[in-house]
Amino acid sequence: MSPTPASTAPLNVLFLCTHNSARSILAEASLNAIGKGRLKAYSAGSSPRDLQQPNPLGLQVLTNAGLSTEGLYSKSWDAFAGPEAPHMDLVITVCDDAAGEVCPIWPGHPATAHWSYADPSAGDGSEAVKLEAFRKTLHAIYHRLELFASLPDDKLHHTLLQDSARQLANHGSTAP
After folding, report:
1. What angle is formed at CA 2 by the lines to CA 151 and CA 40, rounded to 5 degrees?
2. Integer CA distances (angstroms), 8 to 4, 5, 91, in order
3. Where would I find the Phosphotyrosine protein phosphatase I domain in this sequence (predicted)?
4. Is 12 helix (H, G, I), strand (E, B) or coil?
5. Are strands 11-16 and 90-93 parallel, antiparallel or unpaired?
6. For the chain, what are the domain ranges?
7. Torsion (CA) 26, 31, 32, 36 in degrees, nearest 10
8. Does pLDDT of 145 surpass 90?
9. Alpha helices, DSSP H, located in the chain
10. Residues paired with 76 in a beta bridge
11. Separation of alpha carbons 75 and 20, rounded Å
């Protein structure tokens, strides 16, 4: 399957993290802003947070960066494993815990990659310290997704998509 022009169907990317409350939410919002209809992002987790809410500091950082938080909520990856779910072209784990879990069998056998980011909500630091960790994580994710979105269509062809995404895993996962 080759990617289709933005006027027909975008390339669908699912970001996974254990709780779907921070890194995967940041990635979903970022790629939807960058993708301009060519790329469509979703996020999910193996064990979503209680009450299905993203981390408030993540939402604050997205808002401060001018990125939309509309429609963002924590959800189970099971929502994307069924036949009624949108077809995914690429599934990217963004936390090491989710990368080590046994994932569902995704319909259509999408390409997969792992992009490791430290959990910005981990630790006992002050809210200001955690907010800065979220800002740095957003910056690192956004930068990598800009590179991904700038790939030419031939690099996003299904047969090359996995290699392209995995090569970006080695491209600066930490913010300067």
Report:
1. 60
2. 6, 6, 21
3. 11-151
4. strand
5. parallel
6. 11-166
7. 160
8. yes
9. 23-35, 56-64, 96-99, 127-149, 158-168
10. 45
11. 7
CB 111 within 8 A of CB 91: yes
Residues in the chain: 176
Place of tokens 């993540």: 58
Whole-number Å distance between alpha carbons of 100 and 118: 15
Which residue from 157, 160, 153, 121 is spatially nearest to 137, judged by alpha carbons? 121
Tokens 């980011």, located at residue: 117
SS3 assignment, position 13: strand
Does the predicted model carry a pTM greater than 0.70?
yes
User: What class is the 11-166 domain?
Assistant: alpha beta
Residue 81 tokens read as 């494993």
Percent of the chain with pLDDT over 70: 85
Mean pLDDT, the chain, whole residue set: 85
